[in-house]
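Reference record:
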Amino acid sequence: MRFIKLMLLPVAAMMLFVGQVQTADAGPRYSKQKVVYHINYPGGPKDKKYAGAMRNIQNHINAVGAKNLDIKVVIHGNGIGLLTSAKKAGKLQSAVANLKSQNINFQVCANTLKGKKIGLDQLYEVFKEDIVPSGVAELAHLQAQGYTYIKP
């Protein structure tokens, strides 16, 4: 019986250590980050893909801290559906509004707006200063400035 107790002691200690590692605060782990999220795809049924992308961005903020992040979301092509869908009240609008309130910058491709004949009034909270000449050129420009590229 004593042998079994002695064998369980290291196992219990290891479980305690593993538990501490899994619950450790990630705060000091991450330094300042510059990130560009790229959205150029349709949202799918019930805008599920767009909602997932907004969750990814919020999870990023939660992990690193808003003060440590400079996040830009570049939208072009079919991704414009994110901001046309967000124009309607609902969860997607709330998610976009929440991210904007945390200084997340949404940049919209002028070529997409022109090609799809979409006016700013058809988009949720997009203003002239949010328009970039080309979505893909903006992605390259931001990456050259040290932004990490993420496509959720």
Q: What stands out?
A: The first helix runs from residue 2 to 22. Residues 29-150 form a domain with the Hypothetical Protein Ychn; Chain: A, fold (CATH 3.40.1260.10).
